[in-house]
Amino acid sequence: MVRKVCVFLLLTAALVFAFSTGAEAARRSFGPFSVDVPSGWQIEETNDQLTFTAPDESAVLTIVVEEIEGTNLKEVAEAFAEEMGGPKPVAAEGLFHFTYEDDGVKCNAVVQKIDGTDIYTVIVAAGEHPELEGLLNSFEIANYSKF
């Protein structure tokens, strides 16, 4: 499901790139996440957020995970879009997505709820870099109990 979300984000955000740099990526785990981090990308980890920044700072991928009880996916997506100054999110295949600008940079966001939990993920891709697609496609959540 998460892999579908990442592919959907890429398609709806027009982030599909026609080339790859061939740089090696290392599989890294962050609590319940795992992701292939391309060589040279900077990683910033906080309690509920991971941020990956391209070596040339041309792209940033942010993954936010929160457990929120007593709400639903639509409400969470709308609140996040409002906070980011984006338009009303669009529903598609069990998730919501929207595009907004931050300091002139196009940002593409996907909000989803992990089935059977009160855990929500927000994935935001900003900028363009040839390794961004691979990074997005490699994102997985393996163990919900680690939240």
Would you kindly provide a written description of the structure presented here, covering whatever features stand out?
- With 147 residues, the chain is an alpha+beta fold.
- The chain has a single domain (2-146), classed as Protein Transport Mog1p, Chain A (3-Layer(aba) Sandwich).
- Helices cover 21% and strands 41% of the residues.
- It is built from three helices and ten strands.
- The chain has helices at residues 2-13, 73-84, 132-138; strands spanning 25-30, 33-38, 42-45, 49-53, 59-67, 90-92, 95-102, 105-113, 119-127, 140-141.
- Strands 3-4-5-9-8-7-6 form a seven-stranded antiparallel sheet, sandwiched between helices. A three-stranded antiparallel sheet has the order 1-2-10.
- Helix 1 (2-13) runs antiparallel to helix 3 (132-138).
- The longest helix has 12 residues, at 2-13.
- The radius of gyration is 14 Å and the shape is globular.
- The chain starts with a helix and ends in a 6-residue tail after the last strand.
- Residues 1-22 have low confidence and may be disordered.
Explain the layout of strands and helices.
Layout: H1 2-13, E1 25-30, E2 33-38, E3 42-45, E4 49-53, E5 59-67, H2 73-84, E6 90-92, E7 95-102, E8 105-113, E9 119-127, H3 132-138, E10 140-141
Antiparallel strand pairs: 1-2, 2-10, 3-4, 4-5, 5-9, 6-7, 7-8, 8-9
Helix pairs in contact: 1-3
Count the DSSP helices: 3
CATH class: Alpha Beta
Global outline = globular
Order of helices and strands: HEEEEEHEEEEHE
How is the CATH topology named? Protein Transport Mog1p, Chain A
